[in-house]
Structure formats: structure tokens, C-alpha cells
Amino acid sequence: MFADRAKIIIKSGKGGDGHVSFRREKYVPDGGPDGGDGGTGGDVIFEVDPGLNTLTDYRHRRKFAAEPGQEGGKKNCHGKNGADLILKVPEGTVIKDAESGKVIADMSGDNKRQIVLRGGRGGKGNQHYATPTMQAPKYAQPGQDAIEIEVQLELKVIADVGLVGFPNVGKSTLLSRVTNAQPKIANYHFTTLQPNLGVVDMDEGFGFVIADIPGLIEGASEGVGLGHEFLRHIERTKVMIHVVDAAGTEGRDPIKDIRDIMNELKAYNPELLKKPQVIAANKIDAIYEGENEIISSLRKEFEPDGIEVYPISAVSGKGLRELLYKVKELLEKCPKETFVYEPQFDPSVRFFANEPYTIERADDGAYVVEGPKIDKMLGYTNIDSEKGFLFFQKFLKEQGILKELEDMGIQDGDTVRMYGNEFDYYK
Questions:
Q1: How far is residue 56 from each of residues 21, 52, 181, 246, 418, measured CA to CA in Å?
Q2: In a domain, 378, yes or no
Q3: What is the radius of gyration, based on Cα positions, of the chain?
Q4: How far is 288 from 387, CA to CA, in rounded Å?
Q5: Cβ–Cβ under 8 Å, residues 346 and 102
Q6: Name one Pfam family in it (predicted).
Q7: What mean pLDDT comes out for the span 122-147?
Q8: Are 127 and 171 in the same domain?
Q9: Residues 90, 179 within the same domain
Q10: Would you tell me how many other CB atoms lie within 10 Å of the CB of residue 195?
Q11: Which of 42, 78, 215, 220 has the fewest C-beta atoms under 10 angstroms from its C-beta?
Q12: Does pTM surpass 0.70?
């Protein structure tokens, strides 16, 4: 079976605990604290593997965990960092939070490697807690906890052109004729249960990827039959070719078929109908005269809307050259970059959502925000990167911290201090 989706549980590595120990050396009376820091837990990283085209590896194993950091040791020895867990996925895989359905990462375009869960920060050893009044601290900081979440992996095929249409209209035959793909072809409904990809090579080095998308039935947008699989893959395509039976061998109404598909596209995502479309009126080898009533009706129905009709025979190859040059013309007008879903969710946010925090004014007028959730979020977030800082800013807003600062009278330019980090507040 084509592994189009998979649901797995991923867990980052727990940070190693800080160590409590004291110097015990000959001729060194009253040795001070020398407990080392714990190691950082391993990250969970998703990486694109060009050799993969399914999610099969994740259908038979459910849980994946990075390595925890080791505890610190005596004589200021730092604990070993936990090994990262690298999960290989095919290009086009979208990683979503299973609970909310929000996008965590889209492994497409330039995004070949993504840290989805950061390992816990190692705890500090007792050497860090020595003060003039507490010279023998018996406390060390525990390592940060691991984060464990369930994610949904969805493979959305990346193809320039998608062949859409009801089952048994000749999509697989058309794909095999214009590319080097070798899809299974049979005269049965719903024979295509997975997207088949092929490359169309044209003159002057121009080529494009074309996909035979799984057959659609009415109700697809509601998940009927293969519907969601069909619609998931069509999201990435730039141009759609509606393939219909122009000879009427299946007893179907091609106009109704195209309208039904358009209605399903609209119900799933109205933006899909804005993609350039063209109609391939297939099976003209079974028509005695040059152009029959079906083709004339298709022209009358759709060409006023700018959707051109091209009579073709996927079996004999007649009309394919004209169709492919039209598709080339449409592709040249499309944006070159791959459509990539924007991240909507940071797994760390929910993990620390219910932990307390405090906001106080320091003697120098700065607003000091502290609490376990703040400390942990700073440990898991790379605020030096633009993306990481925006996620942290979003976290502060969603937790109501920014609103509370505003209620306390914070003004533009005021300082906000959080565990050694200082920020200038601007609304």
C-alpha cells in the first residue's frame, strides 16, 4: 500500500542533571563544590532523503526518541550530550501536531532539515550555587524534561502538473505516453491508488514533473473514498489537466464530471480553483468523425472561462503535442518557487502552557518576568534566530504575558528581563 500518511510519537532527550560533589584532595582542606553540569538532551530532527518517496518506514513503528544527556560528574566534569535523533522523510512531507492539526514544519523547497523538538538543557552543578554565605551548597539543578508529542506525517506530492479526473478516463495511459513512468494500467475503476510521477522532457531543455493523482469521487472533500488523498496531492501542483472520456465509452457526462471535481476542489480549498486549468478530451481514437458533440459541448461550457479544450488520444498520441505545449505555456507564467506551508505551531508552547510565572518591577525600572514556563521556553527556543524569536514572542502573547505587562503600564523602550536575557519592549 502507498504510505501517504503516518502517525508517530516523538520524544526529545531529557537534559542531564547537575551533580553535587565537593573536592576531596590531600592537602586541600575544606574543598569547595565541584559538581559538573549535565549534558544537553538530543534533538529530534527531520531531514529530507531524496531516495525516499513514501512514509512506509513509519507505518510499522510508532515511537521514536532522542538520547538523554548524561548527569554531570565530580571534578567539574560535564555530562555527555545526548545524541540527536534524525528521522528521514521524502520531500513534500508536512509534519503536523496530531492534536490540533496545525503545521509544525513543511519539508519542501529549501527546508531540507528541521529541528522539531529540542533536547532539554542540562542542569547546573552545585559549583554554580556557591555564595559567600553558602560555601557548600548541596543542591544542583535538575535537567530539563524531555518533550513528547504525537505528530501526523502527510506526504503531499510535489509535481508541476496534476492529472485529475474520475477513474478509468485514461490518466495512467496518458502519463505513460508522455513520460517514462510505468503506472499499472487496467480497465477497472479505482486502479490508481497512489500518485504516479513522471518527467516530461520537451525541447530546449524544458521539462516538468507530472502526476497521475488518485481518482476522485463525489464527496471527496468530506473524506469519501480516496478523496482526501486526491485533494492533498493537488494542493502542490501548479497546473491541472482535467482528463475526460470524450468518446462516451464509460457512459459518463464529461461536463458534469469536471463540475463535480471543481465543486470538490472548492469545498476543500477555494484557492485550488485559481490554478491554471486545461481539459484533455481523451479517447478520440474511438470517435469516427473529427470532433463529436461531447467535445463541442466542452468547448462551449468551459472555453468562455479561459479553460481550453484539447482533443487527444493517449493511446495513439494524437493531439498530445498541442496539449503539452499549452501546459508549458501555462507553467512559464506560474511562480517558480515551490508552495510551502508556513509553520503554525511550536510543540514547546503547549508543553509549558499551564506552568506559573511572575512579573515584578526591578529597582532599575525593568520588568522582570520569571517562572518555570519562561525558563523552559528559553531553554528550548533559539531566540538568536528570527524564527525562534517570533515563536517566543507568540508564546508570550498566547500566555497573556504581554497583556499583563501592558496592564502594568509598560511603555515602548522599557526593558524586559528574563533569566539573563534583556529585551526592549515595543508594541
A1: 48, 9, 21, 38, 44
A2: yes
A3: 29
A4: 62
A5: no
A6: GTP1_OBG
A7: 79
A8: no
A9: no
A10: 25
A11: 78
A12: no
Confidence band, pLDDT 50/70/90 cuts, at residue 82: very high
Same domain, 302 and 371: no
Residue 276 shares a structural domain with residue 411:
no
Binding residues for Mg(2+): 172, 192
| Span 210-260, pLDDT tens digits | 887 765 554 444 544 445 556 777 777 889 999 888 877 767 788 888 888
Phi-psi region of 371 (alpha: psi -120 to 50; beta: other; left: phi over 0): left
Which three cell numbers, joined as nine digits, stand for 189? 475503476
pLDDT tens-digit profile of 257-310?
888 888 888 888 888 888 899 998 888 876 666 667 888 888 999 999 999 998
Are 74 and 127 in contact, with CB atoms under 8 Å apart? Answer: no
Grid coordinates given for 350: 503547549
At a CB cut-off of 8 Å and minimum separation 6, what does 383 contact?
A: 389, 392, 421
Give binding residues for GTP as ranges: 165-172, 190-194, 212-215, 282-285, 313-315
Q: How far is CA 50 from CA 88, 93, 112, 200, 235, in A?
A: 9, 12, 10, 19, 21
Inter-residue contact 196 to 211 (CB < 8 Å): yes
